[in-house]
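Teaching note: in complex prediction, the entire set of molecules is handled at once rather than each chain in isolation. The prompt given to students was simply: 'Predict the structure of this complex.' The entities are:
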Amino acid sequence: MAVLRRLIGDALRRERLAQHRTLREVSSDARVSLGYLSEVERGQKEASSELLAAICDALEVPLSRVLRDVSDELALAELGAMHAVAAPVGTLPVPGARPSLVVNRAA
Amino acid sequence: MAVLRRLIGDALRRERLAQHRTLREVSSDARVSLGYLSEVERGQKEASSELLAAICDALEVPLSRVLRDVSDELALAELGAMHAVAAPVGTLPVPGARPSLVVNRAA
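The expected output is the structure of the full assembly:
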């Protein structure tokens, strides 16, 4: 199962790398330790609400956008898990097909 | 500022109440203590990724939907905060107006 803190960490890291910023820069701006930020990005530590907000502030990205991206990814993962359980043999998705096109709606 | 854990707690509580279920029932199904679930619902405790998933499972609601609802609420709160900072005097929103109609797009 997709673990929420890993998806959040991935989203934060993606955003930081897209801005070409280092862990050191963002951790300093967010006033969190470099080690903590690194652990959050790798999904090894749960970020508290306050620290998540501070990291998003430092990245100048709304927390709501990070959460939306994460919820979209999670929805795809949930769909995949549902399909894996619900699909009868012979209806497995074509590799690379969009999950929305292959989900078994009758399930 | 809207604290994430409070919005998540509100969303979980809303969902539970909509299902006419008690704290006791949901905490038992999720295998978390009643006190823990109560604290999470009141935004007094951060739920770990695993326990949040367990609570959503017990409520039979996808975590992605909870997160999406929360991100929508958070986006409105962020918009409100931005507007409060950015709006010149005389452009304050009409009470009850939709935020999307009153935000100062030039800001």
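Point out the following to students. The CA atoms of residues 92 and 102 of chain A lie 8 Å apart. Chain A touches chain B through 23 residues (CB under 8 Å).
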